[in-house]
Amino acid sequence: MKCSWLLVALVMSCLPVLDLAAQPVEPPFGLARSTGGETQLLPQGFEVDLALSAGPEHLRADATVYVFGRRGYEKVKVGSNGFTCMVNRDGLQSGDRTFRPTCWDAEGGRTIVPVMLRVGELLAQRKTADEVRRDIDAGFDQGLFSAPHKAGIAYMLRGDLQVDPESPRVSAQSFPPHYMIYAPGVSNRDIGIDHGASRDRFALPFVHAGYSGGTNTGYIIVLAIEGKGHLH
């Protein structure tokens, strides 16, 4: 879950946590990290399944899907329901080995997905985290990217994952399943959240600033709690 509109994640728990008035509360779940920024490729079929697993089951069959290749993300499935799914790798340039399957709605597909495609292109070129951030910020300044114009949702119902690409298999979950509500410019203070609140009630929503400190991108993260066959 760092990049201008995201993450994704990015939202995310692996992004830098700054002043609480404007930045995300650090979530109470650790993210596994490793050194090195090399981007990992996954078998295409496995990556497609992983990407689609981020969305509710009824949306998967008709969603558009991207997979990561040596030049960045490539569209391998054209959908018809307005949802776009991919395995977000926006932390890998910082040495974070977390994979974040994400499905964006139509508004996110129009505004956030182009950012993530550019991030993927830069990752494939092995750009550093600072280089990626500067490129994305410049893209917003030049009007190449735009923040969402209305409320919407990105599904991350598989959570943030550690993946063994050799098997391939999911080896661990580093952050639980969650929903991401577009909220550019919103802070934790706006929704009444601080470190004390998140420590005492870990399931409370919190703001993830994404790229650009949340001005162009930002999410309210809400954990997905399963019960009686439904996600509430």
Structure, explained:
The protein is of the alpha+beta class and 232 residues long. It has one domain. 22% of the residues lie in helices and 25% in strands. It has five helices and 13 strands. Strands 2, 3, 4, 5, 6, 7, 8, 9, 10 and 11 form a ten-stranded mixed sheet that branches. Strands 12-13 form a two-stranded antiparallel ribbon. Strand 2 and strand 3 (72-77) form a beta hairpin. It is globular.
Number of contiguous helices: 5
Low-confidence stretches: 1-37, 228-232
Largest sheet data:
10 strands, mixed
Beta-strand percentage range: 25-35%
Number of domains: 1
Distance between the termini: 21 Å
Mean pLDDT: 79
Structural class based on helices, strands and sheet pairing? alpha+beta
What is the N-to-C succession of helices and strands? Answer: EHHEEEEHHEEEEHEEEE
Shape: globular
Q: Count of DSSP E strands?
A: 13
Q: What is the C-alpha radius of gyration, as a whole number of Å?
A: 16 Å
Helix coverage percent: 10-25%
Question: Can I get a quick summary?
Answer:
With 232 residues, this protein is an alpha+beta fold.
What's the helix and strand layout?
Elements (H helix, E strand, L loop, with lengths): L6 E2 L35 H9 L4 H4 L3 E6 L2 E6 L6 E5 L9 E7 L1 H19 L4 H13 L11 E4 L3 E5 L4 E7 L2 E5 L12 H6 L5 E3 L10 E5 L2 E2 L2 E2 L1
Parallel strand pairs: 2-4
Antiparallel strand pairs: 2-3, 4-5, 5-6, 5-7, 6-9, 7-8, 9-11, 10-11, 12-13
